[in-house]
Every structure is written in structure tokens, then in C-alpha cells.
Amino acid sequence: MWNTIGKSLWLKSNCLSHQNQVASDSVHRGNLALQQLSCNACLEENKACKCDQSFESCKRVSGVDEHHSEGNNSFTHSVINMTGMLIGLGQLSTPYALETGGWSSAFLMIGLGVICAYCSHILGKCLDKNPKSRSYTDIGQQAFGTKGKLIAATLIYMEIFMALVSYTISLHDNLNTVFSGTQFKVSWAKLSKSQLLTLMAVLVALPSLWLRDLSSISFLSFGGLLMSLVIFTSVACTGIFGGVKANHTIPALRLHNIPAISGLYIFSYAGHIVFPNLYKAMKDPSKFTKVSIVSFTLATILYATLAFMGAKLFGPQVNPQITLSMPPHLIVTKIALWATVVTPMTKYALEFAPMAIQLEHNLPHSMSSRTKLIIRGTVGSVLLLVILALALSVPYFEYVLSLTGSLVSIGICVIFPCAFYLKICWGQISRPLLLLNFTLIAFGLLLGVVGTISSSKLLIKNLNRAHSG
């Protein structure tokens, strides 16, 4: 919900001030590359850098200058930024996760919030050791060399890709509900109504991938922010004014469902790849730990409130996307559904921007800007169509999101921050902290493995059921 606010405010203190990043969950979250790569593009192409700061500042951000730029974000500003990074796509699924796992699973959600806040803290410690490190991938390189950087970058882009698949599934599901009473068919197309509608929506969003002006793309992120605010407000209004009674009983614990929903919970806290940049943007980086505590507390309170509210309102009938559980006759439901439909369409261009800019850097410098644009747009379009095909083939939002959390996000949020910290700060870590970090790595691996296996089994089971049916 607040992702775009956080990113927008953060970028005002960095090189891409008015070139806002995507409102994403984890989706969000590889967009930190957008900041650095864009400044690199200014340098490599000898173009004027359209930043609020000077050209020399862009050099510092891109790592050309040995000195790092001073941040100017206050404590409050930084809290808004980090909270904005945390609250996103995961908020749709927390009511489902709570009802599926039982109310005691809220302790797992809170515990993961505490763990992820600690891992945010130790990322700051890693940055203290090397002022030249500015990003998550820089920390990976500092800890384990080129292999560490490559693994970190791979996880980042995997998360972006899988989260976009989840967004497209959400687009499909909500379009199907919005047009539930409408007859729509094309005689020559062997697709269902919802599939055709999703294809049309993606084709409408496709031209945005050809935009090269990041300030134009940033306009889309404002739309994403607006839609997120609309969705949250609509769900709250359903409980307050919609005539739906919160009289459902939430089960205490469904232990067999915990592995599957753990991925949903961990995905909700996945924002760590941008935290190093938030750290660098602070006036006083020594307060970064306090910022993490406050931000994760606010995010956890919001998630818990929404989770209990949704589970109490809709009980066992709660949908993996809370918007699909809302009474269809209410005006706020129609508003929320349309907002959920529009949201993914505002995100594609901004989520692809880091990949697109990296692609341009790998092209020969002798190549004309027009040719680069064509290659960039073509590759982005092909990737989006691949994402569309996957989303239509695997239309199970909760299992894909859970798989993303268990397979990728747990590594980004818990396993690798602890591993980076142990490698970089080994000589200064006390025995209790050594034990804690090794325990968290083991816990993360366990949760990731059982969560990946569980969500994969459920996904395969539902796919087989759909094909056999």
C-alpha cells in the first residue's frame, strides 16, 4: 500500500529524485538497481544527468567516486520509506494465511517480523564495515566476491519475475470477478473469457515497457499508490459500513498448513534489497536500527489488524485475495476490484526498468539509441508475454506467492543477511550472536525447504486436478 510513498521519498534524497520507483512488494524490490543503473547510464553515455543533485553526486551513487554521498533523510522520513517498502502485495493474503493456519500462526507472523527486523539491522552493520558498499549486491560481493554478487542479483530478479506472475494472476482473478455477468467470446480464440480479458489488459500495458524516460514511467507508480490506498480503504469500509458481521471463529492452530502459509508471511516482509540504500540516504545512519524496529512494528500491526479483520469477517470462505471475499453488491467492492485490476498494469514498466537498463548497458556502445530502444522494448515485451503465459497456466495466487516467499524471499530476508554478516564481521561477533545467526540460517533453510516443498506440492496437486477435470 505505502510502497510507492516510501520509494518516492527515498529517491528524493538520492540521484533519481523525481524518477520514482515502483510500488511493489517484492515484488517488488529489485528497483534499487534502477537508481544506480540510471546514473551509470548518464556516465557511460556522456549525457546530462537529470537529477536533483549534481553530476558528481551521480558519480558517487554509481560507485565511480570513492567518497559516498551524505544522506539527508531524517528519522521520520526513513521510517516512512522503510514502512512503504514492507507493505505491499502481501497484505492481500494475510487474512487467508491467518484463517488457514489458525490464530496462533499470528505468532509466526510476528516472529518473522522480529527476525527480518534483526536481519535489517545486521545489513546496516555490514555497510558500516565498508562505506563503498551501497546496495544488497555490493554486500554480497563484499562477503563472497563475484559469486556472492551473482547469487544476490539472481535472487533479486527471480523475486521480481515471480512477483509479477503473482500480480498477473491477481489481474486475471479480479477481471473474472468484475465481468462475471458479462458474455465475452471470440470465435477464433481458444481462450476463456477471463483469459481473453487478461490478455487484453496486458496488451494495453505492453506499450509502457517501451518508455525510456523514467520520469514518464514514474507517473505509473503514482497510479499504483492510489490504487493500493483505495483497496485498503475499501476493505476497511466493508467491515465498518458493509453490513458484514465479524462473527466467524478463527481456529486455534492448523499445524499441517503452517509450511505453506509461512511463505505468504515471509513474502510480506521482503524489502531487504532496498534497505542498504535507505541506510545510505539517512542523515544519521546510527539510527538505522531504530528505524527498522519502528517500521517493522508498524507493518506487523497493519498486517495483523487486516488479517484478523478479514478472517473474522469472512471465516473459512476468505479468499487468498481479500478483495475477492468482499460482498459483490457493495459499491466499495466494485471499487476495490477495479483498483486491484489497475494495480498490476501500473507496475510492469517500473518492475522491468532495472532489467531493461542493465540490458542496455550490456549492448555495444556503438549501437544507436533507437536500436537499443527496440531491443529493450522487444525483450521486455517477450518477458511480459512469458509472465502472462505462466499466470494463465498456473492461476493459483496463494501457491505462487507462497512459493516465491519460501523459495526466494526467505533467502533475501534471512539466510543471506546472516551469512553476509558472519563472513564480513566474523572477528567482532560475540559467541551468543554467532549462535543466533547460525540458528537463524538453519531456521531459514528449514522454513524455506518445507515451505517450498509444501507450496510446490499444493501447486502441482491443483494443476493435476485442473487438467484431469
Task: Provide a quick synopsis of the model.
The protein has 469 residues and is mostly helical. The protein is built from 16 helices and no strands.
Structure keywords:
membrane; transport; 469 residues; mainly alpha; single chain; Amino acid/polyamine transporter I; transmembrane helix; transmembrane
What fraction of residues sit in β-strands? under 5%
Determine the fraction of residues in helical runs and give it as a percent range: 55-70%
- The low-pLDDT segments are 1-69
In total, how many domains does the architecture comprise? 1
Shape verdict? globular
The averaged pLDDT comes out at 80
Coarse structural class: mainly alpha
Q: What is the CATH T-level topology?
A: Amino acid/polyamine transporter I
Name given to the CATH homologous superfamily:
Amino acid/polyamine transporter I
Q: Measured on Cα atoms, how large is the radius of gyration?
A: 22 Å
Write the element-wise H/E pattern from the N-terminal end onward: HHHHHHHHHHHHHHHH
Q: How many β-strands, per DSSP?
A: 0
Number of helices: 16
The major sheet is characterized as:
none
**In the CATH hierarchy, what is the class?**
Mainly Alpha
The assigned CATH architecture is Up-down Bundle
Distance between the termini: 37 Å
GO molecular function, one term: amino acid transmembrane transporter activity
Protein name: Amino acid transporter transmembrane domain-containing protein
InterPro entries: AA_transpt_TM
GO biological process, one term: amino acid transmembrane transport
